[in-house]
Amino acid sequence: MTKDKHGSDGGSLIVRKFLLVASIASFATATLYFAGAFNGDTVTAQRFVDLQQGDKPHLGFRRAHAKGMCVSGHFESTGELASYSTAAIFAQGHTEFLGRFSIAGNNPTAPDLKAPVRSFAFVVNPATSQEWRVAMNTPPVMAVATPDAFFQQLQALSPDPITKQRDPEKIKAFFKAHPESKAFNDWKAAYVPTNSFAAERYHSINAFYLHNEQGEKQAVRWQAVPHDDYRELAELDKTSADALQKQLAQQLKSQSVKFDLLFTLANNSDDENNPTIPWPMTRKTVNAGTLVITDWRPQAQGKCGEQNFDPLVLPAGMSATADPILRARGAAYAQSYRRRATEKLLYGQSTNSQGEPNVSN
Amino acid sequence: MSVTKGYSAVSRTLHWTMALLLISMLFLGLSMVQSLAVWQVEAVALHKSFGFLALVLVIIRLINKALSTKPELPNELPAIQRLAASVIHCGLYIAMLLMPLSGWLMQNADGRVVHVFGLFTVPNLVEADIKYFALFRELHGIIAWLFLAMIFMHISAALYHGLIKQDGVMSAMLTGKK
Ligand code: HEM
Ligand code: HEM
Question: What number is the ipTM of this complex?
Answer without folding.
Answer: 0.94
